[in-house]
From TrEMBL:
<protein>
    <submittedName>
        <fullName>Uncharacterized protein</fullName>
    </submittedName>
</protein>
Amino acid sequence: MECVSRYLLSVKMNVFKLRQGEQDSRALSIVGFHLATSKKYPWYQTRNGKTLHYAVCPECDNPIHIVNLDVDSKVDTDGRSLPLYAKHAAVDIAGIGTFDRDAYEDCSLANPASLNGGNKTRRPGTVTAEICEMLMDHADAIQYMIERFLGASVSDQLFASILEKFHRQEGYLYREVSTSNLPYALLYMAGNQLATGCSPKAGSPFARALTASTHFELTAKGWIKRKAGSNAQLRFFVTDHVVRKSASTNEQTMMLVVDEEVSGQSHRLLREGVKLEIDFFRNLLGKRMRLREMAHKEFAGISHSVD
């Protein structure tokens, strides 16, 4: 591999993990990478007299190259700051792992795409199976992330409706949907939903929407209540998924829209962009799976041995 840089795929990312098969996702920083790797092989490798730095993509498990980690200068020839970031490596890296192009093609970290596109071109296979398994095995974590986005509790009835809409549209077949953005993909594909059974947090978008409502208010316990004599409905939907790509990261937002509807006429209460917590969700899943593995290792087989 005479020139490693020509094997690198161009999209930048700001997270990494150490080994293939691990669930951890770490934010990329100079000190954080040093502490995680102890500056040792295989994350530090010398090629053609230069020290190069490697790790693994948290989503697709492919090798990645850490760029601008330990450099003599932190600025380029024009005086501009050199950002620290990671790129997928399109080759096998000794000690790190093999490169799987199919997995790369379906990796949202490789090329995060807006859900606005609706590109239903994924064929059933490994990725679709992983998405469906996550929906079944981590439904509570997905519901929790939806609640964080809305700033309100989500009833079982509402969550069931969101799942049904995603299933009906075969959301797992859309290339923009991944295991990293799954809670937000569900919301995006949920269509127009009733906010029945929601309990907004103080200062949340839903709470702010209610301050403009003629027909709804919050009870003393924080539940949304229709005012006496009204037959209005409080509804919401999500739109305008935006991926803002910068030198070192990709910030994503979606627009939350809240309406009150009376006799078929809608009155807009709120339209607000909300940031997607992609890294938080990935780390939440990683922690849950680590803890499950610990407990399984400790107690596996006990249920079969107890009378």
